[in-house]
Write a structure and sequence with these properties.
This protein is α+β, with helices and mostly antiparallel strands. Helices cover 33% and strands 26% of the residues. It has helices at 5-22, 38-54, 84-89, 160-173, 186-194, 208-220, 248-255, and strands spanning 27-29, 35-37, 59-62, 74-82, 95-102, 105-113, 118-123, 128-130, 133-134, 147-150, 179-181, 200-204, 224-226, 239-243. The protein has a seven-stranded mixed β-sheet, with helices on both faces. It has a five-stranded mixed β-sheet with strand order 11-10-12-14-13, sandwiched between helices. A hairpin with a 4-residue loop joins strand 7 and strand 8. The chain is globular. The structure holds adenosine-2'-monophosphate and calcium ion. Residues 40, 63, 79, 81-82, 84 line the site of calcium ion.
């Protein structure tokens, strides 16, 4: 029950988010393509203040205000706006993501898209919900019938091997599937596998705050998450492969061809 407060904290922060979505924004460049607005910072500060009171024992690791990524025994990973590029361009796939991890395991997570008013929530062992209704992954069991989501990393511009990985894995996966989508928010991609919109998802160069909540929501909806070699996923891993479970081996197997 103590984790439940995540929902109301995310909803409150969502008011700042929703207002910002329709306003003109001041944009700062972390790099040529890695953008941040005043709302990213404002929402993160709001979340940190509220979470510090609700979870005083946890270390708060936020995308915009934490200098280094750490993996303490009790951690809360915060992305105030996952999908900032969408947020700036008025595309309604962006969300607040908050994931609580203890002893390297996810225990609770919320992903809230204030624009579409979609609140995904899960606690370990208690199932996953969208706006308080239980959600489940699909039972699609072939890649041929699967809709797969992916994303393109920031490192596409300055790390040739990452761009090559994106292109080569796309060449392997795309012809085998119904199609591939790139929505622009890792947290939402994971939740959309959890609710049965997508059958699977993979991406390179993710950070803990992108996936800390979505992973638990997907697992609790009956899905699977692994590294690209099929081994157990840990939060410091760069590549995530996540599916409804039924196509996990097939998707990992395809990607292993690279
Ligand atoms: P962010 O908005 O928090 O940085 C989806 O592919 C992931 O990529 C999201 O989690 C998103 O996280 C990030 N992303 C956003 N804009 C991007 C861009 N222009 N290039 C690469 N990744 C981006
Ligand atoms: Ca972000």
């Amino acid at each position: 029950m103590k984790f439940d407060v995540l929902k109301s904290i995310a909803k409150e922060a969502g008011e700042i988010f929703r207002e910002g979505f329709t306003q003109s924004k001041s944009i700062t460049f972390k790099s040529d393509i890695d953008l941040v607005t005043q709302y990213d910072l404002q929402i993160e500060l709001f979340l940190k203040e509220r979470l510090a009171v609700a979870f005083p024992e946890h270390t708060l690791v936020g995308e915009e205000t934490s200098e280094v990524i750490t993996y303490p025994d009790k951690a809360i990973y915060i992305d105030p706006i996952d999908g900032t590029t969408n947020f700036i361009h008025g595309i309604p796939f962006c969300a607040i993501s908050i994931g609580i991890w203890e002893d390297a395991r996810p225990v609770a997570g919320v992903v809230y898209n204030p624009v579409l008013d979609e609140l995904f929530y899960a606690e370990a062992g208690k199932g996953a919900t969208l706006n308080d209704e239980r959600i489940h992954v699909t039972d699609t069991d072939t890649l041929k019938n699967s809709l797969i989501a992916t994303g393109f990393p920031y490192t596409k511009v300055d790390r040739g091997e990452d761009l090559e990985w994106v292109l080569q894995t796309m060449a392997l996966v795309l012809p085998e599937t119904r199609d591939v989508r790139r929505l622009g928010s890792a947290a939402i991609d994971l939740c959309y596998v959890a609710k049965g919109t997508f059958d699977g998802y993979y991406e390179i160069n993710l950070k803990p705050w992108d996936v800390s909540a979505g992973i638990l929501i997907l697992l609790e909806a009956g899905g699977k998450v692994s590294r690209v070699d099929g081994q157990e996923y840990t939060l410091d891993e760069r590549i995530v492969v996540a599916t409804n479970g039924k196509i996990q081996d097939a998707l990992v197997g395809k990607m292993a061809d690279y």
